[in-house]
Amino acid sequence: MEYKGKKRFVRMFVTFKPLCDGFLAGCRPYLAIDSTHLTGKYRGQLAIACAVDGHNWLYPVAYAIIDSETTESWDWFMEKLHQAIGCPPGLAICSDAGKGIDSAIEEVYKYAEHRECMRHLVVNFKKKIHGKVFDDHMWPAAYSWTPEAFEAHMAAIHEKKPKAIEYLTRYHSRLWSRSKFSTSSKVDYVTNNLAECFNNWINKHKGMMLFQLVDKIRRNILVKMEKRRRIAKKLEGHRILPSVMKELNAKSRGLDIEYERIDHMKAEVSEGGEDGKRHVVDLDMRTCTCREFQVSGKPCKHAISFITGIRGVTIEDFVDDYYSVAKFAAAYTPVMPGLTDASQWPKKTHEFFLHP
Hints:
By secondary structure, the protein is an alpha+beta fold. The chain has helices at about 15-25, 70-85, 100-110, 120-130, 130-145, 145-160, 160-170, 195-200, 210-235, 240-250, 290-295, 300-305, 325-330, and strands at about 1-5, 5, 10-15, 30-35, 45-50, 60-65, 90-95, 115, 255-265, 265-270, 280, 285-290.
């Protein structure tokens, strides 16, 4: 772009069709958006958009070099991302809800579910408001599955410090509690740790020259895609990813839960003890009134208890397809293109030069 009468490098967006195709075909409709500081001679930010596969493994979708975290830069990044992948049905986007990125997501992805990273929220919250009541109720509120549980924690906070609720309503209006999440994305994360994982993944490369950094990330992604393609091949014959089934089978052990059937696929399920909560499970609809089943896409403990008492069905039958081997394979089937080293790239004149 023109800057003080001269052409100047400002930003660069990078994605690859295999990544976009793999995301749309095999990953849950969820994106973590963040940026990290570059540490080389050319300072700026590396913006990233990451997804998650059925294994809960990081899936890079796009990255970019931007000069700073301004509204203009984030608008540009989100526009480029939208051009690459569109807006998949049920898309949820998680960010730190900073001023620039918040408005960019709102403008470009106005129909997506916009979540705020709970860890960033708590850091900002504690700068303004203090007290043990928040330690006891903020994180439990974030992890609450039902609106009733969430409101109970909010009421406890309001009783001690009403201004805290006013602050949250005014400055943190994005979704940060599982109780508010839609049931479309099947991702129950309350933090943006996925993006932090990407930052850690490339941390030692952030001091490279820009063209080296961009290419290094590309090569890392290429290696990751090929490795996971081989893993998918080994998993052929399974419907649901074995790691997911291992988690659910472990959850089925030692459950102190009783149920009364309503009909063949519906039941009232009660947790142990006199004060145990009672929920209604509908296996045909894959729902439980605790909401964990439909938000996560995996049977909750109430559903698992009921499923294990029915002949002819298994826990695996009620796991969402996003956790299937077929979806996992679809994410990694597209092959990243190979690329020669820089000495073999076409020479172009851009009327500016990045000095070493």
